[in-house]
Structures are given as C-alpha cells and as structure tokens.
Specification:
This protein has one domain: Alpha-Beta Barrel (TIM Barrel). Helices cover 38% and strands 18% of the residues. β6 and β7 form a beta hairpin. The chain is globular, with a radius of gyration of 20 Å. The mean pLDDT is 96. Bound molecules: ligand PBG.
Length: 331
C-alpha cells in the first residue's frame, strides 16, 4: 500500500490554473514613482546612469505624474535639485523651489495622486552631506545631528504647506521623526503622513541617484549616519524607534540585497512597510536589458514580486509607470 505520488505540477499546467493559485500579485497601487524636479520650463535633462529617467522642470513633472496616474499608479515621491546650494541646504524649504512648486502643480493637475516629498538636505548642501557639518571631539568632520533636526522639520512643514500628503525623511539623523512630527502638528498639518526611511543602509546601489540629484558627498561618505549593510538587529531597533516617535509608514532601503530585512520589519511592526527599489537596482536591470542579456519586463516584474512577497506593502520604483502598464497587460 503506497500513497499516491504528490504532483505539484498539476496546479501549474495552464495559465488559468496558475492564476487561481497565485500567492502574490503586483498591482499598480503597490508602486510609488520617484520624480526629480528642477526649475525652468520645458527642460528635460536625462540622467545617463538611469536610462528612461530625467530631471524635469515642473511642467514636465506634471506630465509624468499624469501619465503615471493614467497607468494606474496612485502615488509619487518628489526630489528636488535646486539652482543654488549652500552649507545649510536652505533651498530645501524654499516655497518657490522646484519641490514646493511641483507639489502645488501636481495637486492641481492630478488631485487624486498621493504625493510624497523626500525630506533630506543632501540635494541642497554644497558639500553633499545630509545636514550641516561640524567637528566632533576628535576633530573629525561629521553631520551635526541636533542642528539638522530643525532644518529637516522646516523643510517638512514647507512641503506640507505646498500640498504634500506624505513627508519622507531620508537623512538618518537620530530623533528626526519625532522632531518632524511635532513641527507638523504645531503647524496644523496633523493629517500629513510621515513615511520614515527608518532602515536605510549605506549602500553602493545609490550611485546613479547621486548623479541624478547631484548629491555625492564632496568628502567622506555617509557611513557615519546610514546603516552598516551587515546589520539586521539594528534594523529592528531603528524601525521601533521611529514607530515610537510617530512614524505612519516604515521604509526599508535598498530592497534587493535586503529582502530578509523587509521580511523581518514586516514582523516587527503592524505599520505598512515600504521598500525602495533604488537607482542602482533599476540601472542594473536597464543595462542588462539594453545589452539583450535579460528580458526587461519579466525581470522587473519578478523583482517587484519578490519585494512584495518579502513583505513590502508599497514599493518605490523608477519602473512604476511601465510596470503598472505591464501588469494591466497581463491581467
Ligand atoms: C537622500 C536620498 C538618497 C536616495 C533617496 N533619498 C540618496 C542617498 O542617501 O545618498 C537614494 C535613492 C536611490 O538610489 O534610488 N538622502
């Protein structure tokens, strides 16, 4: 007497069968599109290390936002590249700067697109670090944590006033979630959502973004504030701190080398978890696809599915508009 042979292949025989037992599906609403805003009109500056992505003047940012929404994408995140940078990053909270202008223009043209604004000073400082610099007790140049907090809060309040639904601090200063939450609440922005880049590693995969945002540090690197890629327990610590300080959404960044971290953070908090499929991850696939080495559509959807399967509710990806169209074609 023997048991019948187990045959998992029965469930994979046809497209229809596969579709009724599929565990994870990418939907356009899972995807958040990053956009790079600059000043001017009709200006499009392609980013060589990110094929298909460009710095755009506000009118063209609006057009991209519209196209994303038409493809089914429900959210976008704005980054700004100012005309002038200084040691404090003061352009970050300029109400006439590219981010505030883009927020108002997109809210006007595409009112039901959820809009996030990245809150960091590295695009706005002339030295490229995420806050003003100081010397520590040993004389080393460091980002001054507590001096950075009010500046970040000021930028977050400016974005909230310009219409951001979400502010997303990506600087990795200690205590910034609490400082920003307090400033938002004091300024009547109690409905503005705080999406924290809570678990952000010092990653080589941000290289192309730094071309895009012109934010490569002139000296040194970000390892004194971003996390060591080797650490998982520290990810829990960072996430729990930000939950305690009032974050509404917790992000893990990058995504691909950190799928275990995404799944750990999924179990650490009941807040929604976002994952950033960063520039280097995007560019690797683009480069391989352009060489004919991989099939872009399948590779991108496989990556996004993996990130969602690991536990992400929301995925920030430069492929958002394309991927939204591709999944609609599959359906
Ligand atoms: C700003 C910021 C960075 C990214 C998002 N916000 C770069 C960095 O920390 O150097 C990276 C995004 C990407 O690589 O796609 N601090």
């Amino acid at each position: 007497m023997s048991f019948p042979q187990s045959r998992p292949r029965r469930l994979r025989r046809t497209a229809a069968l596969r579709s009724i037992v599929r565990e994870t599906r990418i939907e356009p609403s899972d995807l958040m599109l990053p956009l790079f805003a600059i000043s001017g009109k009709g200006v499009k500056k392609p980013i060589p290390s990110m094929p298909g992505v460009a710095q755009l003047s506000v009118d063209l940012v609006v057009a991209e936002a519209k196209a994303a929404r038409e493809a089914g994408v429900r959210s976008a995140i704005l980054f700004g590249i100012p005309d002038a940078k200084d040691a404090q990053g003061t352009a970050a909270w300029d109400p006439q700067g590219p981010v505030c202008t883009a927020l108002r223009a997109i809210k006007d043209a595409v009112p039901d697109l959820v809009l996030a604004a990245d809150v960091c000073l590295c695009e706005y400082t002339d030295h490229g670090h995420c806050g003003p610099l100081a010397r520590d007790a040993q004389g080393h140049v460091v980002v001054a944590n507590d001096q950075t907090l009010p500046l970040l809060a000021r930028a977050a309040v400016a974005y909230a006033k310009a219409g951001a639904d979400i502010v997303a601090p990506s600087d990795m200063m200690d205590g910034r979630v609490g400082a920003i939450r307090r400033a938002l609440d004091e300024n009547g922005a109690t409905d503005v959502i705080l999406m924290s880049y809570a678990v952000k590693y010092a990653s080589a995969f941000y290289g192309p973004f730094r071309d895009a945002a012109q934010s490569t540090p002139k000296e040194g690197d970000r390892r004194g504030y971003q996390m060591d890629p080797s650490n998982l327990r520290e990810a829990r610590r960072e996430a729990l701190l930000d939950v305690g300080e009032g974050a509404d959404l917790i992000m893990v960044k990058p995504a691909l080398a950190y799928l275990d971290v995404i799944s750990e953070i999924r179990r650490t908090t009941d807040l929604p978890v976002a994952a950033y499929n960063v520039s280097g991850e995007y560019s690797m696939l683009k480069a391989a696809a352009q060489n004919g080495w991989i099939e872009e559509r399948r590779a991108v959807l496989e990556v996004l599915t993996g990130i969602k399967r690991a536990g992400a509710d929301l995925i920030l990806t430069y492929s958002a508009t394309d991927a939204a169209k591709w999944v609609a074609d599959l359906a």
